Amino acid sequence: MRHYDEMRAADGSIRPHYQEYSRWLSEQSDDAVAAKRTEADLSFRRVGITFAVYGDDAGTERLIPFDLIPRIIPADDWRMLDAGLSQRVRALNAFIQDVYHGHEILRAGIVPAAQVFMNQQYRPEMQGINLPRDIWCHIAGIDLVRAGGMTGGDGLMQAPGDGPGGDGTFYVLEDNLRVPSGVSYMLENRKMMMRLFPDAFARMQVAPVAHYPDRLLENLRQVAPPGAEDPSVVVLTPGMYNSAYFEHAFLAQQMGVELVEGSDLFVEEDTVWMRTTRGPQRVDVIYRRIDDDFIDPLAFRHDSALGVPGLLSVYRSGRVTLANAIGTGIADDKSIYPYVPEMVRFYLGEEPILSNVPTWQCRKPDELSHVLANLQHLVVKEVHGAGGYGMLVGPASTAAERERFAALLRARPDNYIAQPTLSLSTCPTFVESGIAPRHIDLRPYVLCGDSISIVPGGLCRVALREGSLVVNSSQGGGTKDTWILEA
Length: 487
Known about the structure:
The protein is α+β, with helices and mostly antiparallel strands. The protein has helices at about 20-25, 30-45, 75-100, 105, 115, 185-195, 200-205, 210-220, 245-255, 290-295, 310-315, 340-350, 365-375, 400-410, and strands at about 50, 60-65, 65-75, 140-150, 170-175, 235, 260, 265-270, 270-275, 280, 285-290, 320-325, 355, 360, 380, 390-395, 415-425, 425-430, 435-445, 445-450, 450-455, 460-465, 475-485. The strands form 5 sheets. Strands 4, 5, 13, 14, 15, 16, 17, 20 and 21 form a 9-stranded mixed sheet that branches. Strands 3-23-22-19-18 form a 5-stranded mixed sheet. The protein has a 4-stranded parallel sheet with strand order 7-6-11-12.
């Protein structure tokens, strides 16, 4: 199946937006590049830029592999992506607001009511709750892929292309609206690249990303409860054993706010307070990195030691803001994903700028039959899955794995969706054998406050194993810096 090469056109020529970088790269010696790679690894290890892998016998902490060749996106492509991402997040926010208020899209029959009210991410406790500016998703991470082609079995669903390599159509792979992670790696990757290769940046106009923490803090303060003067913001973490703890600490430090755990906060007189050495301090905005289930043991999981007892009561009264809102997960569930283009049309009266990947909903008998008959061609995902777990990549699977997944599908068809196997775009990557193409994706970060803003770029993840389409760090993937060229 053909794929789109980010750097080279189908005839082997260097694409225009990579030409200056290609000239610069040709001037670097192999020994110099090898030394820079070693320096980057040592620096990341020294700073502690790691992630946790649950259930890994080799240890919980790993260094995320970092590749020195950036993914470069021209200004015209980014303008289209910026507009499409903003449009999509506006529609998703409107959907969540509607789900917990008027239910108009359900009454119109566009989204089946059962898929909302029977969904484990739906929170009936949030019905009728009004939030500042009606914003539910304050920080979104939207996963994008560029595909040269796709197949869903029997030669179905070939995407547009310009011959070998395809024309590189962008698709939204999934929406991350609960606690999207990875932005710290985006920032650290850029810092590392500027330190190692300042001469490359001097030759190209690359849009900056370092202002993201300032913009995030400004965004969080904008959505504070009405009447809160000089709002107090904190980052709520599950603790140091969480896989993204480095990011929690990093963002708190970069924003100049407190990093807290549930035991650092308490509720009194319908207000959330933070324990400090100077006495209790009122908290107005909580950037929470804890799932709904664990955030308040009085309202959700009673065995949670991570949350704040009574927090939901204060939240419902409008005296504290949570980013993202409780119940936001209803819109990033993979069973809801197929309806997002219709949400854009329904709420905004616009045609979607960014397309979904075609998706089969296994809860529908006819679509389940197609999936079961074509497992060797498809990617099958759990609707609540994340991190590359609980999925089947058909072309890379064994007959035994497909047989096991077929049994899971028949037992719980509503728990799965399937998509064609995408021919993800590739980017040149340093591997043991030298420079070779590896598949990539991109997660830009969208902030919603007084307006919607997107820092140019995002987290580019790369599947370091040859032929692999799974880019998740927990599955052996690495990261790259993303350069958006300024016009």
